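During the no-cost extension, the postdoctoral fellow (Dr. R.K.) reprocessed legacy sequence entries with the updated structure-token encoder. One reprocessed record is reproduced below for audit purposes.
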Amino acid sequence: MITAAALSALAAACALGAWRFTTARWTSRAPRLAIALWQSLGVTWGLASIGALLAYAVTPYDRGVIHGLAAFARGRKPDATLGTSGTRSR
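Re-encoded structure tokens follow.
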């Protein structure tokens, strides 16, 4: 869950940065830098959004994003001892 929260925060920061970027006045003086920065913000925002959704989706596997996706691809079912909050129930 921490990975999903961190990636969500990164996506929100990129959206805020992109919004602030639209009102910047220096972009006409350095258009190449402005385009590179705009593209990097967009790619980071997109990857962080997709990563946050994937991290949230594989939370029931309790293995992290990469290993959770691998377990999902193999057709394994999530651990039955996990509760809805993603923590082990006793």
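The chain has a mean pLDDT of 84. Helices lie at 2-21, 31-57, 65-73. The remaining legacy entries will be reprocessed before the final report is submitted.
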